[in-house]
Design brief:
It is built from 13 helices and 22 strands. With 542 residues, the chain is of the alpha/beta class. It has two domains: 275 residues, FAD/NAD(P)-binding domain, CATH 3.50.50; 177 residues, Cholesterol Oxidase, domain 2.
Length: 542
């Protein structure tokens, strides 16, 4: 079969793009997704992320591992990524955060014309249907429903009060370009009557409502194995489905939306990248592009955790199970209660010093004890305070493990390769612990976990950070946008040196945004849709 556009990956980028391109009934689109439809109950129920995130059984989750990290005492890191329509928006904490104005102005200053804050804000608004309606900073009619939290627990409000006691300002909305302060996260959660309280993944927002369009073909359980190329022109995609090798042709463009790990891997499998990454695996070089798989950036996270006698949060045990049943009934009836939680309810974006121009750490305050990505469970009740470095200096890579397209890529975030990242994380951990010890927050703690104690030196903090830190799930940058020799795509997201080939996902970010990356990825796809439509119109006019 031949289509105008073939999109590889049905995550936040691919779902958005497929829906927008097929608004034109004369355009045909085929979307290939390695996972399922993204409609099952575990995805729709916000709190059920705890069943998918750990990766047991790989439910809607690639559950990748990193190579041993020198900066983390040789430990392998864990990298959960969504494997279903909706991608990682199907298994994330639903947090809607755009980042800071300076993030996007920085992209533009590095040669990515048209990606400054003022230029991208309209695309954030176009994507959004905010619970409060349209305004200067929010859209009211877009596909993506953005809500205030349905039933935030009392303990994140105590977190906010404790931070305010330390003179941090309270912020009602972290999406205006200046995020400094503390508050509650907004979430990608349905607020309409029909689905109130359910997760609004990118697929639920954009794709599921238009699956019956005659010009849209969605093929699930279909893993792309390589691009079909005629010289340096992309003509289609080879994929595997039910152990059978298949092929689909693209008359206009092939668009990669696999994310920071899968998009560079597919380019490399197709002979596009660095010779030293391809030739050892017997992959023939088609197009030398040295930036493919380089520039990997991620937010490294360190967790403070506490056991508590407070039972108005998420707990494990008999009482927690009884409460869960009660909250399940409440969620089904009203869309509220504990099952509506994003877990990370409290937010903070803070500066680690007076000499820092803008917030350089982010805090996720979580209403449960989180240990090793919820893969180690702690009976009883508790809470966690997660601290990450917003603009890491360390850079990693994604390369091939072999020429087998079904093999996981080699992921090396290279955490803490730059000393500045460790120094910032130590400062951030100290700031977070001070909030935890400040009334009215301090009274909730029954026991502090993980060996953290008073009087720790910086060397002590370094030791425990290297022993425990890991990702907060924001990998980007491996198909970087730009105009220099190491850029993979140009500012219109076309692969340099190739024809009819684009990348539209978080991998194109030159620098990671200062916050969660789902909303920026959807924005990128909204903008890409306009670019692709404009290109098509120019071809017709020519």
């Amino acid at each position: 079969m031949a289509y105008d556009y073939v999109i590889v990956g049905g995550g936040s980028g691919g779902a958005t793009l497929a829906a927008r391109l097929t608004e034109d009934p004369s355009i045909t689109v085929c979307l290939l997704e390695a996972g399922g439809t993204g409609e099952h109950l575990l995805i729709r129920t916000p709190a059920a992320v705890v069943a998918m995130l750990p990766g047991w059984g790989k439910i809607s989750n690639w559950a990748f591992r990193t190579v041993p990290q020198k900066g983390l005492n040789g430990r392998q890191g864990y990298q959960p990524r969504g494997r279903a329509l909706g991608g990682s928006s199907a298994i994330n904490a639903m947090l809607y955060v755009r980042g800071q104005r300076e993030d996007y102005d920085g992209w533009a200053a590095q040669g990515c014309a048209g990606w400054d804050w003022d230029s991208v804000l309209p695309y954030f608004l176009r994507a959004e249907s905010h619970e409060d309606g349209a305004g200067d900073l929010h859209g009211g009619t877009g596909p993506l429903q953005v809500s205030h939290q349905r039933s935030p627990r009392p303990i994140p409000r105590a977190f906010i009060a404790a931070a305010r006691a330390l003179q941090h300002r309270e912020v009602a909305d972290f999406n205006g370009g200046d995020n400094e302060g503390v508050g509650l996260y907004q979430v990608t959660q349905f607020h309409d009557a029909a689905r109130r309280g359910e997760r609004c993944s990118a697929a639920a927002a954009y794709l599921h409502p238009v699956m019956d369009r005659p010009n849209l073909t969605v093929i699930t359980r279909a893993q792309a194995t390589r691009l079909s190329l005629e010289g340096k022109r992309a003509t289609g995609v080879h994929y595997r489905q039910a152990k059978r090798d298949k092929h689909v042709e693209a008359a206009r463009e092939v668009i990669l939306c696999g994310g920071a790990f899968n998009s560079p891997q597919l380019l490399q499998l197709s002979g596009i990248g660095r010779a030293e990454d391809l030739e050892p695996h017997g992959v023939k070089m088609v197009h030398a592009l040295p930036g493919v798989g380089q520039n990997l950036q991620d937010h490294l996270d360190f967790t403070l955790a506490y056991k508590s006698k407070d039972t108005d949060n998420f707990g494990i045990g008999l009482r927690g199970t009884v409460n869960l049943v009660r909250h399940m009934l409440e969620w089904r009836k009203t869309g509220g209660g504990m099952l509506a939680t994003p877990f990370a309810e409290g937010a903070a974006f803070l500066k680690t010093g007076s000499d820092v121009a803008r917030p350089d750490i982010q805090i996720h305050f979580v209403i449960s004890v989180v240990d090793d990505h919820a893969r180690k469970l702690h009976p009883g009740y508790g809470y966690s305070c997660h601290v990450c470095v917003l603009r890491p200096a360390s850079r990693g890579s994604v390369t091939l493990a072999s020429a087998d397209p079904l093999a996981a890529p080699v992921i090396d975030p290279n955490y803490l390769a730059e000393r500045a990242d460790l120094d910032t994380l130590i400062k951030g951990a100290k700031m977070a612990r001070r909030i935890m010890q400040t009334p009215p927050m301090a009274g909730f703690a029954h026991k502090e976990l993980f060996g953290i104690r008073d009087g720790m030196s910086d060397a002590d903090w370094e030791q425990i950070i290297r022993a425990r830190a890991d990702t907060i799930y924001h990998p980007v940058g491996t198909c970087r946008m730009g105009v220099d020799a190491l850029a993979v795509v140009d500012p219109e997201l076309r692969v340099h040196g190739m024809e009819r080939l684009r990348v539209v996902d978080a991998s194109v970010m030159p620098h990671v945004t200062s916050g969660n990356t789902n909303a920026p990825t959807i924005m990128i796809a909204e903008r890409a849709a306009d670019m692709i439509k404009a290109d098509a119109a120019r071809r017709v006019a020519a």
